[in-house]
Amino acid sequence: MSMSVSLKLGNTSQRLSYQICIQLICSFFCVLFPNTIQDSCYIFRGIHCRSCGSRCVYLPNTGASSVDDFLALNLVPVTKVVKLSSPAFHYSRMSRLTAEAVRKASDKFPDSLGRRLRQGLPPKIGSMQTFVHGCKDAAIVMKRIPWDKVSDAFKSSFQHQFERLVVLDYLIRNTDRNMDNWLIKTEEGADGIPTSIRIYAIDNGLAFPFKHPDNWRAYPYHWAYLAQAKLPFSEETANALLPVLGDDDRVEELINILYEVFQLDGGFDRALFNKQMGVLRGQVVNVREALRKRCSPLQLVKMPNAAVMIQKHRTPGGGSKKSYRQIVAKRLPFFTNW
To answer: 175 and 55 in contact (C-beta within 8 Å)?
Structure first.
């Protein structure tokens, strides 16, 4: 189990020290209380991040789970926004002294102050993600699978799940999908050959950028280098996703769901959110075309980057109507992979 907690801490060294501290605490917790976390083990994330438009990392993680649930991809472990408090979190000296004073007063007068004062440190907002057991990094598993010996059903199952991973990452424009932050779980037969496979998409904290990468780095999708990325999208994937992604009303329904998630943050900026959703709409347009033409994931990532913004116009009768404006990203990163 790994917990990554660092909520608006002062500097880089302070954030790293708290992150290491929480990881050590979680490691000891898993060793001391293994039965407590068999099926209810969660990762708490509440990192303040500037790379995705001043959005906190817990929001993209929760947003990715919402997209996964809406499209029935079954890849992202269930992730919800929660509020937690812990002495291991960063608090000001005043907050800690106040909590200690309240505790002492409540212990001394349990029947009066003890019933009226809120106990403990103030909660902090973050995301809780279900912990998946028995998985390993894709970078490790992909090298160990004997692809020349596994069954066709195994290969087909992996390809279908892989295609859904491609669609998820492309829609949310995951800028941090390397081979170490998507997991694979396999089951082997008596002969040691894998018979079933399951993919999990974790660590989606650097998704939903407010613009396409256009500076130094291209933030490539590392799965695009796999052999499976050269195969065209299957009929199963296209038939499952096109009815949703091909309907503008359903896409706006998804954006409304994401709005309910992102507006939970105290620093929510509607203008910034609209830019993030503009990028998502642009990605939807490319995914539609790729699925309809049965392109490959590699061909998908080579499509021109674009954002689709909504513009509202006033009508002569005093009402308003909306139109879509597509903005193609003309500026490319200095280091481009495609």
So the answer is: no
For 62-100, how does the pLDDT look when each residue is reduced to its tens digit (9 = 90+)? 999 999 999 999 999 999 998 888 888 888 999 899 888
The whole-angstrom separation of Cα 104 and Cα 121 is: 13
Q: What is the DSSP secondary-structure string of 199-261?
A: EEE---TT---SS---SSB----GGGGSGGGGSPPPHHHHHHHHHHHT-HHHHHHHHHHHHHH
Q: Give the number of residues written for the chain.
A: 338
pTM of the predicted model, to two decimals?
A: 0.78
What is the distance between the alpha carbons of residues 69 and 63, in angstroms, rounded to a whole number? 10
Count Cα atoms within 13 angstroms, Cβ side, for 211. 14
Give me the helix-helix angle, 270-292 and 152-172, nearest 10°.
140
Radius of gyration of the chain (CA): 23
* Other beta carbons within 10 Å of 102: 17
The half-sphere exposure of 14 on its side-chain side, counting CA atoms within 13 A, is: 12
Flag residues of the chain having pLDDT under 70.
Answer: 1-56, 113-118, 216-217, 313, 318-320, 330-338
Report how many helices (DSSP H) and strands (DSSP E) the chain contains, helices first: 10, 8
